Amino acid sequence: MTIDAHFAAIEGNGPHHVLVLHGWALDSGVWLGTRAKSNVTDFTWAYLDFPGYGASRPSQPAEGVDGMAASALSAVDELGWTSFSVVGHSMGGVTALRVATLRPEAVSRVVALTPVSPGGTPLDEATYAAFANAWDDPGAAIRSNLAPGIEADDLDRLVARNRATMDRPTWEAYLKNWTSADFMGDLSRIQSPVAILYGETDPFITADYLKPTLDHLPDGRLVKLPSVGHYPMIEATAEAQEAIEKALRA
């Protein structure tokens, strides 16, 4: 398989290998704060950029969540990893779950932060258009719909990096991907423990939204992160990384 997704960074020398997947609005730079606080003795972290983002920007966007998962697995194969955990945020969280359904024998843990649904997120025409047009002012959309408590300077940096690492066609292609996920019935294939972390103040990814996903997982648990919204790794960096590593060790 052609490699069309590339790692922006591989850090650490630990025996526990971790594939890390970003969400829709930002490349793997969304993890820069948590990377600085990560345990690189016990873990090896591989931060992937999906096709069309960041280090993989020259590539055409992946088609569907299945295409995203296939790109991630192809990149992991290049590392020679036969056993690994997957951490993913939002769109990357649902892709982490897909990776675990496609290669359950290889995935030892899944940690999904504020993941969108494996059953898709149906949007009416007007709402879908509003999400697509949020490209014009992503900062306002993030504050009003995802992270109402995010600090202004953090939001400014997020938006600046959004503009520096992707383009509008990529934005629109991946909107289609994450809203149309359709593998809820395959979650029973996942053999590993799954921790789903969500932000207490996230208006979008709530406990009620996540309930169908939890109900379909053989070994899933829900973890609430207090006082943060959709971007725990930005809004409460140390706490988010601590929660991720705790779930990976569980």
Automatic annotation (TrEMBL):
Keywords: Hydrolase. Transmembrane segments: none annotated. One of its GO terms (molecular function) is hydrolase activity. Signal peptide: none annotated. Residues 18-236 form the AB hydrolase-1 domain. This is Alpha/beta hydrolase. It comes from Spectribacter hydrogenoxidans.
